[in-house]
Every structure is written in structure tokens, then in C-alpha cells.
Design a protein that fits this description.
- This protein is α/β, with parallel strands linked by helices.
- It has a domain at 24-164 and 231-298: 3-Layer(aba) Sandwich (Rossmann fold).
- It has helices spanning 3-20, 66-77, 110-124, 137-148, 167-178, 182-194, 217-224, 232-235, 257-261, 285-298; strands at residues 23-31, 34-42, 52-56, 82-86, 130-135, 154-160, 243-248, 270-275.
- It has an eight-stranded mixed sheet, with helices on both faces.
- A hairpin with a 2-residue loop joins β1 and β2.
- α2 crosses α10 (285-298) and α3 packs across α4 (137-148).
Length: 303
Amino acid sequence: MHLRSIRLILALFLAFVAISAPSAEDITLRSGGLELNGRLEMVEGKTVADGVVLMVHGTLAHNAMETIQGLQDILMEREINSLAITLSLGISDRKGMYDCAKTHRHRHTDALDEIALWLDWLKAKGAKDVTLFGHSRGGNQAAWFAAERQHDLLQRLALLAPATWNAERAAKSFKRNHGRELAAVIKDAQAFATQGKGDQPMKGVGVLYCPGADVTPESFLSYYLPDDRFDSPTLLGKIKQPVTVIAGGRDTVVAGLAERIEPMADGKNLRFALIDDADHFFLDLMAEDVADAIEELLSPEGS
């Protein structure tokens, strides 16, 4: 093949990529000395006034994780605007998975404040209709936000394998992952907090997916002090907006979610979708099924 032909093919390929690539824009906003990151994908010819899906990732993750980025790209293909955010977890301009070597100072409910900030940002840009999406822990944080806070942009929720909780399971999981009795560490953390040492790291305690990590008492208690609101199904009755809960048939992380949600679903205010072959991360073709459920929620009949 002649060099000229190769160059022509390459030029045509690059032109096709440029035409077909989604219109993605990295967004930053500042709050309390932190720089927060988001990726806005806008359909050509649309604005935020045409509606946006605000996407929240799971535990210690980020907006470029495959579950979030893959789904965001599919939503673009279906002409649905989206904004995928990275929760700061107390780190300015955070990218990628949280570094377990860093001291954990973040709190579970920090996410609620950041969701509010992004909703305010969208409102300032002219948005009128936002669907709040959350995966795993992000699903719980989205549900917690909707159950306890009001925002005029929030019209509906899509919760993908939202986190569930009970005290016994939490204690067993902590012992398995960190080799300590959860009740004893909670007692120590409460004592430090009472002494005014809530922001001083407890060395090597471990938290979430980070064995041996340093964590402040305030951070630790925010994730482990017993609270029924960690259990997403218990929040659903407090949410005024329509909700779709999506579960994976092979999900071992939030096992039993389907059995709890399906009897609650009325097909209108609470919808339930089970994707039989999906695990906790809903990759590849499973992401198309997730997009189907979101698209149905966004339809005039679904809202």
C-alpha cells in the first residue's frame, strides 16, 4: 500500500473519531479549600436545561472507574446528558482510587454535601431537571441525600446495587478484613472523640477496603457507628421522588437486595430491575441493561 493511501486512511479514521467522540468536558469547582472534579458529557445540540444524570461512584472509587465511565458513554449514545463526579474524600483534585496509605479523614456523609454543591453548580448553569444516580455506596449516599435534603432540581433517582447494612454483618466483615473486633474500635474512637481528639489519627486500625490504614476517629465513626441509614432499602420510604433500584443477579456484594426490593416495588414510585447475569459492577452488555432502566425512568411515563 502506498504511503499516500495509508495517510488518507489514517486521516479518515481520525476524522471519524473526532466526529463520533462524545463531547466530554472536565469540570472543577472549589469548596472549603478543596478542588472537586467532574466529567460532563453533553449531547450535541443539547444543554443542561434538557436534563442531566448526576452520577456518584462507589467506595473509595472515582468517576473514571469502568462502571461509571462505561455507563456514561452509553448514556451519551442514547442522547442523555450526564455529569460523573469524583467525591473528594478530603483530597483536593483527587483522581483514581483512594490511596490507602493516606490518613483517612473523610466521612460517609461528606458525599451529601458534595452532591448538593454539584446540584447548585448545575442550577447555576441553567439545569432544571436532574436524575441522581449512585452505584454501591454511592447509591446509599444518593438515597440518603434524597431522603433528608431538598433540592428543586432533583426529580428522580436511579440506584445501582445500592449498599445494604446490618450491624451483625458489618461486625463480621470488619473482623474478617481488619482482624479486630468492631465494637472495641468503635469504643476507642468514641473515647478519643469525647476527649477532643476526633481529628487525630488512630494508627493502623484499618477502614473500609484499606487494612492497616490510619484513620481519624471522626472518619471511622462516620462509617461504622451503627445507623439504619446505611441500609438503602430503609431509606426508600422517605424519598418523595420516583426511584428505580437496579440489582445484579450475581452480585455477592449486596446479596439479597432483590429479595428485599422486589416486594416493595409498585412499578411507579418505586421500580425494580433485576439484571440476572450482572455482578456488582455491571460491565459490558450489562451496562446496556442499566441504561435501559435509566431510560425508562426518564421517559414521560416513568417520571
